């Protein structure tokens, strides 16, 4: 059962890469302290691996299949 205001879906996460193949998101994550990086990585991994109950407002569609986690 999904609570009111939530949707149940699964997603594939891919970090943005520049035309040169660099990933500003990955660079940012690597700049964080290990504990913070581990927390963020764990949340993103769970989000990608399982259907996850999330508030609809947490995501914003940028264009086509490109979504931003807010």
Key structural traits:
alpha+beta; two-stranded antiparallel ribbon; 34% helix; two-stranded antiparallel sheet; globular; 2 helices; 70 residues; 24% strand; single chain
Description:
The protein has 70 residues and is α+β, with helices and mostly antiparallel strands. It has one domain (12-69). Helices cover 34% and strands 24% of the residues. It contains two helices and four strands, in the order βααβββ. Strands 1-2 form a two-stranded antiparallel sheet. A two-stranded antiparallel ribbon has the order 3-4. A hairpin with a 2-residue loop joins β3 and β4. The mean pLDDT is 76.
The gross shape turns out to be globular
Alpha-carbon distance between the termini?
24 Å
SS summary, helix count: 2
Give a quick account of the main beta sheet: strands, pairing sense, barrel closure. 2 strands, antiparallel
Helix content: 25-40%
Helix and strand pattern: EHHEEE
The structural domain count equals 1
Number of strands: 4
Q: SS-based structural class?
A: alpha+beta
Q: Please give the radius of gyration in angstroms.
A: 14 Å
Strand fraction band?
15-25%
Average pLDDT, to the nearest integer? 76
